[in-house]
Amino acid sequence: MEREAQEVEAMETALHFKTKVLPGNKVEVTAPDLKEGDPVDVFLMLSTDVSRRRSILEFLDSLPPGPRSFETWDEIENHFQEERNAWDR
User: Fold this and answer.
1) Residue 69: DSSP 8-state
2) pLDDT tens digit sequence for 24-81
3) CA quadruple 35, 38, 41, 45: dihedral, nearest 10
4) Can you tell me whether residue 62 is helix, strand or coil?
5) How far is the C-alpha of 41 from the C-alpha of 13, rounded, in Å?
6) Which domain holds residue 28?
7) How many other C-beta atoms lie within 10 A of the C-beta of residue 74?
8) Number of domains in the chain
9) What is the dihedral of CA 12, 13, 17, 23, to 10 degrees?
10) What value does the CA radius of gyration of the chain take, rounded to a whole number of Å?
11) Of 18, 69, 74, 76, most Cβ neighbours within 10 A?
């Protein structure tokens, strides 16, 4: 019986809020059930209904400049063909 009581005490309460990012890239939450000064853990997750998603090309363009493995698609195809030919040897 004592173990059950310990498990109940160890359970955490989670609160779910929907909000928007405010000017200055800030997020504000008001939770009247919480006591001022109590420690809390905060996790932020972008909502799945975010209308602006980056395409893979936008992601690739956002990468820092650096050497790429190949300049053209033909070079990539040639490299793969050379690899395939090496398997047959």
Assistant:
1) S
2) 989 998 888 888 998 988 888 887 665 567 788 888 888 888 777 888 889 999 999 9
3) 30
4) helix
5) 11
6) 2-88
7) 9
8) 1
9) -60
10) 26
11) 76
Handedness of CA 69, 73, 74, 77 (dihedral sign): positive
In angstroms, the Cα distances linking 83 to 34, 70, 89 are 61, 15, 10
Q: SS3 for 76? A: helix
Q: Which amino acid is at 23?
A: P
Neighbouring CB atoms inside 10 A of 35's CB total 6
Instruction: Read off the pLDDT band of 2 (50, 70, 90).
Output: low
CA 55/CA 33 separation, integer angstroms: 41
